[in-house]
Specification:
Elements lengths: L4 E4 L11 E4 L10 E9 H4 L10 E4 L2 E5 L5 E4 L6 E4 L4 H13 L2
Antiparallel strand pairs: 1-2, 1-7, 2-3, 3-5, 3-6, 4-5
């Protein structure tokens, strides 16, 4: 498991709205049983509530998803679904969204 990897959301209660979970936790903490994730929402469902600095748009297989940074959560690693994509190329906007959420800058 690596930082900025995307996993299928296995939770039947939330996977329709958030089909993917983005792991944002540092690889240095990989021994912990939990990790921090940001839910990803299809762009068509989130555009009306998107705040550009807080909710970057991320592409997965020609589809656009919105990172719902304000809804980040801790999850047990064993509950993550299948790894489906690596969004490491979006490192800067993801970290900027986290910084904006925490510091407002």
């Amino acid at each position: 498991m690596a930082q900025f990897c995307v996993y299928a959301n296995c939770n039947p209660a939330s996977r329709k709205r958030y089909p993917y979970l983005l792991d944002i936790q540092s690889d240095l903490l990989s021994e912990l049983p939990t990790t921090v994730v940001v839910p990803l929402c299809p762009a068509g469902q989130a555009e009306s509530i998107q705040i550009s600095h807080l909710n970057p748009s991320l592409a997965i297989d020609d589809n656009v998803y919105i990172a719902m940074t304000q809804e980040l959560a801790g999850i047990e690693r064993h509950r993550l679904g299948k790894e489906v994509h690596d969004l490491g190329q979006f490192r800067e906007p993801i970290l900027a969204a986290l910084d904006f959420m925490i510091s407002g800058i």
